[in-house]
Amino acid sequence: MVRTDLEILLDYMLDYGGTGSLPNMDPPDGDYEGGSGHHAYEAALRLKEDMEVVRRMRDDARAKCQAAHSEEVAT
């Protein structure tokens, strides 16, 4: 599978954000969470979930089309 730019970016965000290593993970007051890096990490998590849903939907649609085509060819 060829990785898309989006997948490469998500891998980076999730790897570094998961360890708290993105820039600005903390807000200016020093409390954990809430800085721009933390918000970017949370967005990457949501986007990854969305991409997985879309991938499953695409795979299901592809399987249904292939099954319909096979049935049509068999008749």
- β-strand amount: under 5%
Shape, per Cα inertia axes: rod-shaped
Measured on Cα atoms, how large is the radius of gyration?
19 Å
How many beta-strand runs?
Answer: 0
Quote the distance from N terminus to C terminus.
34 Å
- The number of helical runs is 2
Description:
- By secondary structure, this protein is mainly α.
- Helix content is 71%, strand content 0%.
- It is built from 2 helices and no strands.
- The longest helix is centred in the C-terminal third of the chain and has 39 residues, at 36-74.
- The model has no long low-confidence stretch (mean pLDDT 85).
Keywords, please?
0% strand; rod-shaped
Write a concise synopsis of the structure shown.
With 75 residues, the protein is mainly alpha-helical.
Q: What's the arrangement of secondary structure elements?
A:
Elements (H helix, E strand, L loop, with lengths): L4 H14 L17 H39 L1
